[in-house]
Specification:
Helix content: under 10%
Number of strands: 17
Distance between the termini: 109 Å
Shape: globular
Length: about 200
């Protein structure tokens, strides 16, 4: 009678088999379940208790906030996509401004800042803007370096207080995609602030 020795797998074959099993089960760890998408995130500060505000990203994706701290927009954003955070609805009796609210999503998390102050704390600067396409935003800036993302035609207000008699100007810092800065109309030129509310006419 002829006896056969039990079959044995070589070490190389065992390693190859293990690699196949890991690949089939997703054990390689190379897959990103999020598909590479990320959220636009930031921090809210200065909001008074019992009050709330609504933020928008790129003119949509409304986000209602009623407490200070970290926040994140619900809709995922692809790497390399632009974002522009703006205040859609201000809290009663307060004025909130967005800092570092525009850019291109290159790293997560983003560092958007939303700061709120009591309305009437100093003099405020505002005006009207037109030429903003739907679903996009324009970034305005003052001579003092305060940026403001505006997501629709109409009125805007900068949050940073200005001293009485201070000179000011408002220009386009970043135009919407596919739109030249000259196509964005801001009413009137620079003047010297002499009253509590100054609007471009």
């Amino acid at each position: 009678m002829i006896q056969h020795a039990p079959a044995r797998l070589s070490l190389t074959a065992l390693c190859a088999l293990s690699a196949c099993v890991l690949a089939a089960c997703g054990g390689g760890g190379g897959d990103d379940p999020s598909g590479g998408l990320g959220s636009v995130t930031g921090v809210l500060s200065g909001l008074e208790q019992g009050k709330s505000l609504v933020l928008q990203n790129n003119g949509s994706d409304d986000l209602a906030l009623s407490a200070n701290g970290a926040f994140a927009f619900a809709h995922a954003v692809a790497p390399g996509a632009p974002y522009a955070v703006a205040v859609k609805t201000q809290p009663a009796g307060q004025q909130c401004t967005v800092g570092q609210g525009t850019g291109t999503l290159a790293a997560m998390p983003t560092n958007v800042r939303v700061d709120c102050v009591s309305a009437g704390a100093g003099f405020t600067l505002g005006g009207t803007v037109s030429g903003v396409p739907g679903g996009q935003a324009v970034v305005l800036t003052t001579a003092g370096g305060e940026d403001l993302a505006v997501a629709a035609d109409g009125a805007f207000t900068f949050a940073r207080p200005l001293a009485n008699g201070a000179s000011y100007s408002v220009t386009v810092k970043m135009a919407p995609v596919g739109v030249s800065a000259s196509a964005i109309v801001i009413s009137s030129a620079s003047r010297t602030l002499t009253r509590g509310w100054s609007w471009f006419h």
